[in-house]
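Collaborator request log, item 7. Partner lab (contact: R.S.) asked for a structural prediction of Probable inactive receptor kinase At4g23740 to inform their binding assays.
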Amino acid sequence: MEHLVCLACHVNFTNQRFPGIGRKPLDWETRLKIAVGAARGVAHIHRQDGEKLVHGNIKSSNIFFDGQNYSIVGDAGLAKLMRPIRRSAVRDPHYYPAEVTDTRKVSQASDVYSFGVVLLELVTGRTSSQTTTDGGDVISLVNWIQSVVREEWTLEVIDVELLRYPSETEAMVQVLQIGLDCAVTVPELRPRMAQVVRMLEEISGIEPADESRLEDRWEQPTVESILEDLLEDLLPTLTP
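Returned to partner:
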């Protein structure tokens, strides 16, 4: 199995707002490629089981990518085992819309909301719940972006590491808007994942995928294989 890297380890700590990780920031092309790959993966999941399958736990720590920056969405199918999901399972509440935190019932629409938060993380370099107001209160990334005037997004919202690509600013703003569209309060107003895939493919210039050729790539990694990869990555730092 190819060595996989957790997206959260890169994106959530890429700029000066979250120092200390020491990893090289992802460039814009790489972030777009990961976004498209992850969107295709979630859309693929939504097409299964008569288009009734729900992931239920989409967040940056469940998105992995290999040396070629192809994304794999892990932990799929968990929601099918827990209906409704346990309150203790909602460890990252800012990835979930209100209808999930209130009822603990996930849906494809709530998956779209969660994916929208991941898109916002990709563009801002901020985590879903570590953005604070001037008063020091923690608010969701979605609410924080909505509080910033759109005309100020470039300087206030976009990851400072991405400002090195001024020609791509329009695309960054477009991805931000898609993320916000996915994270609207009313579930029925959110786009379907197939629509999100098409919009991201258009922005990135990546050719539409042939579903039949990508079946193997979207096979979900097992927990054991992911742990093996993480241990392999950590062992050199633990041994003298």
